Amino acid sequence: MSAILLLARYFSASVRGQMQYPGSAITLGIAQFFATIIDILAAWALFDRFGPVQGWTFGDIALFFGMVSVSFAIADFLSRGFDVFGTEFVRTGNFDRVLLRPRSAALQLIGHEFRLSRIGRLAQGIVVIALSTAALSLEWPPEHVVLAAWTIAGGVALFMGLMVLQATLAFWTVESLEVMNLLTYGGVQAAQFPLSIYAGWFRNFLIFVVPIGCVAYFPVLVLLGKSDPLGAPAWLLPLTPAAGFVFFGAALLAWRFGVAKYTSTGS
Amino acid sequence: MTIARPYAAAFAARFMLLLQYRAAALAGFATQCWWGGIKVMVYAAFYAAAPAAASTSLSLSQTITYTWVAQALFALVPWTGDPEIGQAVRTGAVGYDRLRPVDTYGWWYARAAAWMTAKVVPRAALMLAFAGVLLPLIGLETWSWRPPPDVAQASLFAVSAVLLVALSSAWVMLLNLAAVRFLDERGVNALTASLIIVFSGNLLPLPLFPNWMQTFLFVQPFAGMLDIPVRIYSGDLVGERALAGLALQAGWTGFFILVGRIWMERLMGRLQMQGG
């Protein structure tokens, strides 16, 4: 309970801090909305010119894209501390202070900063899901709403797991590794289109190594009322977001190992 | 010649400095490969779905080459002003630049050009090695970066690439001046970046946008920052169309430089020094 109270404190402090410069926060949010929504413009232009591809239409792609955007926006909102962990905590030795406080390090890092500008991507995801709903005249019965929430939760867990892994690597590399952006931002990019259009090896990577497909492809098929062209059984589709939580759990184990091995750089 | 020397020195110093960031260049390169790979797979799927309905001037192999060249030249897309100039304005160091016995516009312009070329040279070389040499070697010939069709197109491309740097630098100068004017460049940068990504062809090759937009897309200034050079390279813009493209690049460059100079004149007249 005290953990949640503490997070709420962190949250309100961070938001109040950012609202000291409301113009900046709002501009960055709007900028992020546009920077991320242009991808759907590209998809629209391609469908306008080529028509449906492998049975997928623009509305389908919009749902894939909107769902992964919402997941990533929330995860990014919660894990800024892990994202800058190498640069701001390990290299400077600030992590020592975190360890001295009587709360878990992971909790404090989540509370490090909540960037309001992420609302831009969240809003973009919601707009794109609405676009998809309009284009396909999708119905949202309660079980689909629950499935969407479960899918997004799995996606948040997966992306946070990636950020935790990036932070864990920083115990050894000292700096934050930009290469991990490949899996976070790059994963979002890849998940905008259904996995079935990719080459087999790339698809397998996105299902079995970094299970983005499990939180952004299989469950979304159910929302679209489609069966999997790759042949995954129908009963399995709604269960796959669990893979995101498994990934998150594995990342936290790696994180624990890293914390145990940590030697300070500070003086 | 002696008049150009300080600007050449500014270019060289900045170029060498930026070449030092090898790790950042490698990370950037890996990202470009990933992005390029995803785009290539997506385009291949679309072309396979409707080969006849495409009714576009670009073939699949031209689109793929376009994608790789766009990734290679990514650093030439002018998303942000020169961060050091924004910094100099906030700290007051801009005063040193005003005291130099050179034209400040030219000085900053040379820095901008060096900044972008230094970032692009190593990445473009790596990208060519990856997409032009490695991909065909591992049997992914259809996904590879192809050479230009003939010598004429290649030489036109060389001219167009130089104009690309000139045009992008002129645009960066406008962003720099916005930083001088507003003291904080982040807002302007963030808002113009999306515009440039869409209209330069970085998001999607411009010929793949609907046909009714094509005339507008060709004449707007951002096409010269990627689309025109790449389409000359791949043999999509030939003859008169290619020359028109070059003229557009040169014209927009001149226009932006003119606007930048007039704006700079006015801003510097009432520049307030920050800091102490």
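qc> The longest helix of chain A spans residues 142-173.
qc> done
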